[in-house]
Design brief:
alpha/beta, elongated, 9 strands, disordered N terminus, 9-stranded mixed β-sheet, 234 residues, 34% helix
Amino acid sequence: MRLLALSMVLPLVACGGPTDDDVVVFAASSLTDAFDDIADAYTSSTGESVVISAAGSSDLAAQIDEGAPADVFASADVATMDRIDGVDGAARIFATNRAEIVVEPGNPHGIVTLGDLADPELLVVVCAEQVPCGAYTTEVLDRAGIDLTPVSFESNVRAVLTKVELGEADAGVVYATDIAAAAERVDGVAIADEFNVEAEYPIVALGESGEAFVDFVVGDEAQRILREHGFGAP
C-alpha cells in the first residue's frame, strides 16, 4: 500500500524520492521558499532529512486522502485542512499572509487598485476558486464589488506568479510573500486593508514521525525564518 501511495506523489518530490527515514512534508506552494529554509534548519538541528513536496493545497489534500505517505501537511487555508480525515481540529495555525496584486516590473499598465484589473484590455490571471488562493481572491473581489473576467484560472499561486513573470499575463492576485520571493522579476501593488483578507496557514502531523517537525515549525527558529520570508505571526 505504501509503495502504491508513494508512486502517486513522486512527481512532486525531490529527485530520487523520499526514503522511510525522511520526514515527508506536504506544503502549500506559497510556502516553498520558507519551508526549504526551515527544512535545512531542522536537519541542522536534528540530523533528520526532510523532503518538501510543494503544490496547491487542494491537490496535496487529495493525495493525502488517497493514501500518499505524508508525515506533515501545511495548508494555505483552514478549509482545505479540515477536509483531511482524522485531523479533527488537531491542526495548529503557524503563519498568516495577505493578498497582493502582482504586475510586471515597473508596472507598465499603471495598475494601482483592484478596480484597475477590470480593464478589458488587461490580461489578468487568478487562482481557481477551488484552491485557497482562489477562494481568498474571490473574497477580496467580492468585498471590493469588482467583477473580473480572467484569461485563465490556475491550480496554484505559483502558476499565477509565473504567468506574470513570463509576460503571459499583465497582472494577477497572489500572496504578498510570493511577490517578495520573486524579488525583481515582478512588482507588487498593495490591496487596501478594507478589502484584503488574512490568510491563515494550519499545519498538522499525520503520524508520530511528523510531530517533531510540526513542533519545530511553531518554535522560535522557524518562526524567525517565516518572518524573514514575509509571513505574519499567527
